[in-house]
User: Which sequence fits this backbone?
């Protein structure tokens, strides 16, 4: 890691309230923001962020789940629905809009597109590095700098798949069907891709950590396309 990288990392960390950072901790933050495509392409022995992403995902979900539990007196199903705001696509958007500059420090290989999943994964890895460096209390504080108060009031009570089916039925068409398209990612952290078919044609494509997330996203995309067209087909 060169001096320019160290300076950039320290600047972002300072904005997040971390001013005294050891050399070892700085290396951890550097690794957290290094995608596997970069380390493979450069042959770097500094590692990538996959292991940190694994830990950060758990830390982030714990902090958010605890907050929702303490904030909303709902049953398990309602609380689970509220966790929708922490999905990859949303995480990437919050990181980009936070003004932290974190996304600008993510290293990816040449030709690798900076996807929402990569940004979300790097953010989760960063949370793991922060947790290991500063502990849970500081990590909790930083996490909520990325999520505006209204964010955690998000409710996914809207059932995209149910809404899509209702619209299709009103149009007199057969019910939509969901088919797997691919499975990507590491074995311990797979990413599923599903498409939704309306009248035999692909109407939406979704990705997620499991079938439920992927099909829900496919339905959401199909609904968005329907709104733009003004009709299901």
Assistant:
């Amino acid at each position: 890691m060169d001096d320019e990288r160290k300076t950039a990392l320290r600047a972002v960390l300072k904005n997040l309230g971390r001013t005294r950072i050891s050399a070892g901790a700085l290396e951890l933050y550097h690794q957290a923001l290094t995608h596997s495509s970069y380390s493979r392409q450069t042959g770097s022995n500094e590692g990538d962020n996959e292991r940190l992403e694994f830990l950060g995902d758990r830390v982030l979900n714990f902090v958010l789940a605890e907050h929702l539990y303490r904030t909303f007196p709902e049953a398990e199903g309602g609380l689970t629905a509220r966790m929708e705001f922490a999905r990859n696509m949303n995480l990437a958007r919050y990181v980009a809009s936070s003004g932290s500059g974190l996304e600008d420090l993510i290293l990816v290989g040449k030709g690798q597109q900076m996807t929402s999943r990569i940004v979300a994964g790097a953010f989760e890895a960063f949370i793991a590095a922060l947790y290991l460096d500063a502990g849970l209390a500081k990590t909790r504080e930083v996490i909520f700098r990325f999520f505006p108060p209204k964010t955690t009031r998000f409710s996914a009570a809207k059932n995209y798949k149910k809404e899509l089916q209702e619209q299709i039925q009103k149009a007199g068409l057969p019910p939509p069907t969901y088919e797997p398209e691919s499975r990507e990612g590491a074995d311990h952290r797979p990413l599923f891709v599903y498409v939704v078919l309306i009248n035999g044609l692909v109407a939406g494509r979704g990705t997620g950590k499991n079938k439920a997330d992927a099909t829900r996203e496919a339905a959401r995309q199909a609904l968005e396309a329907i709104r733009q067209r003004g009709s299901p087909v």
